[in-house]
Every structure is written in C-alpha cells, then in structure tokens.
Amino acid sequence: DADTTVDGFIAHEVQEIVPEAITGAKDALDADGNPDYQGIDQSKLIPLLTKAMQEQQATIEALTARITALEGA
User: Fold this and answer.
1) In which band, very low, low, confident or very high, does the pLDDT at 73 lie, cut at 50, 70 and 90?
2) Those residues with Cβ within 8 angstroms of residue 41's Cβ, 6 or more apart along the chain or in another chain
C-alpha cells in the first residue's frame, strides 16, 4: 500500500551486522516458488542499540563539558 508508512529494519541489511537476529535467507522461495521471507528477532538488537546510546551520551557529556570550559561558564 503506497499510502502506508511502516518503520522497521530490513532483515538482509541487519544480517550483515547482527546475523544471529535473522532467520531465513534473502530472496528465498518455498517449494511452490512463493517468497519465503526472512524473519528478524528485534529483541536481539536492543542491547546493541542501548550500548550505542550510552556511548553517544558519554560523548555528548564530554563535549558539553568542553564547551562549558571553553566558554568559561
């Protein structure tokens, strides 16, 4: 449906980074030639995303401290 926006991840792209989160194979077909779609266990992404956010927060705090020091505030 061209009028519907769905947010999410593309399994074969995630597979390059977190292969354990993906089931199935890209562009696979079943015995009848129908698409056999890949699956994604998004819960396996949460620890990685959380760690990335923690690292970003540490960077933000370090940069904020540098700006404060440079501005003499």
Assistant:
1) low
2) 21, 22, 23
**How many beta carbons lie within 10 A of that of residue 2, not counting itself?**
4
The CA distance from 67 to 58, in Å, is 14
Predicted TM-score (pTM) of this structure: 0.71
The one-letter amino acid code at 32 reads D
Are 21 and 40 a contacting pair, CB within 8 Å? yes
pLDDT tens for residues 49-59? 999 999 999 99
Which residues fall within 8 angstroms of residue 15, CB to CB, at 6 or more apart? 21, 22, 26, 38
